[in-house]
Amino acid sequence: MLIKIIPLNTNGNGIIYKLEMTQIKTNINAYLSWIPYLLFFAGSFIYFGFFASYVFFYQEKSSLFIFSLSFLNENLHQPGGFLIWLGKLFSTFYYYPAAGACILSSVLTLIVLSVSKTILILKNKEILIIPIITGAVLFYLQTDYRFLLFNSLGILLQLVLFLISIRSLTILKGWVPVILVPLCFFVTGGFTLIFLLLLTSYFALYQKEKGLIRIIVLWCVSLFTFYISKEFLFFQSGKTLLTFPFSDAKTGSQQAIFVSISGLISILPLIARIKLRFPAKAVMSDSVINGIVAITLVIILVVIGIQRFDIKTKHYFTVEKLFYEHKFEDVIAFNTRYPTTNLLTIFLNNVALCETDKLDDLLFHFPQSPDGKTLFLKWEIAGEILNRGGYFYYTIGMINEAHRWAFENMVMRGHTPEGLKMLIKTELINSNFEVASSYISILKKTLFYRKEAEAFEKQLFTDLSANTDKELIKKREIKVAHDFFSITDNPYINLEMILAFDTLNKKAFEYKMAYMLLKKNYKGIEHNLPQFEKLGFKTLPVHIEEAVIALTISNRGKLPYMGKFRISEKTEERWSQYLSVLQQYGNDVKAAEPALKRRFGDTFWYYVFYR
Length: 611
Hints:
mainly alpha; elongated; 33 helices
């Protein structure tokens, strides 16, 4: 602490001194300078931890980090692979949203700090406008759930290496940055270009005496490293080596924005050379500047958060989370509370309805596609279809087909938590215990899925009677025993082929009837009415009762054969009410539509009239 001793006056008792502790003010300003960074971290943490946690759910479910040397080796087959590995390592902690928010906010805040520190070293003055822009843009990019963490990590590593380089110019006569190039290229791949541009602009602007020779050597080493990598080490195309792991898909199709902010960071030495002159009256104290910056940051984060928050996406991933946890009743309840038209959401909801034996009771309580796309998904390698479409086949007992979808997804995208669990379950159901054991051993090497792996391990080499997993028991009971070529372009044909051999497959039958309802296939519904009794239904599903009434009307009052079943009083009463509303509008179907939708929008009758 610096203490100034200033004499004030003298008297008979001696000299009176004033102790001025100027260092206290300096320390306060130093503490205040951290406020913008702390607020940025806090704002990011609150947004991702409490509002946009679906970002972590998607990314954690999209990859699986395996704690093994072989998994590390798999990610070292080309430059930049280690960055992918590092991103997956951090992303595995996204299993807990609070941990994910802490990790992501830390990475973003460290980038902002690194940019600020770089400018401070180069300019000998703190300028916060560039760090604010950098942090705001990266925060904006990360709000897209498809923007993967390794992108931000790639930028952070370039900044850290650059800071190390300009701080170590006295070591090895200033050639440390050149020595770091091959290491940087191997670790971060195409992101190394940011590091090279930072060094080039720094040498050109701040190392005039030795700058030119260092630039020449720097690029010679870089080009030589690239040539050796291409021709002798990794055998990848030049384009792949220059760009990997950067891609449009892994930036959430925000390529232009990401390239722009990377370009801005690459010319930080040039930006630091720009001299800004302000009138003497406009100069403010550090505490005022920090206060303005802090308020500006809060406003920016709030505006971006509001603009980028997607409630529909949040609802979808909430449904998917409940679905993966087998909370099918909760899936149905959630979609009832928050209606949606998202195809994948309705698809998962229909699977949940079938798993709870409610598909033909509640089908029209949710928006449906007349072509059946909400019942089953057609084979599609691109997009998110391949990762989810197999659950339809798993539900109706086509275990081999469910396995094929999961296996192809693994081939295309690598291991994912739910994909690996599906592979394990299908192999256990098929009694392929050796293969199942190999998949289980992989799952055991993860951080948060070990308990599930151990539970699966207990099902190895056991027959049906000794099996303790209720789900596996049910799926073994309805497993399709005969082989046939599945038709992924027209899944309905698969239902017909299953029921041609296994007439007691209740799940497949429910889906078949649901499809007939969607297609308004009266003859098909009438023909299959006797099957409900054979399959052990105690009552006809609600929508089938509604279809029977519609059939009766079209048959001029002749009731189709239903065996022991009768139309319930509740359904008959609703039909009377439906007719009453229609009559109030003079049987004008178009005029009555709003009222009918409000009261009977969840019925087969409304669907027949208006879809």
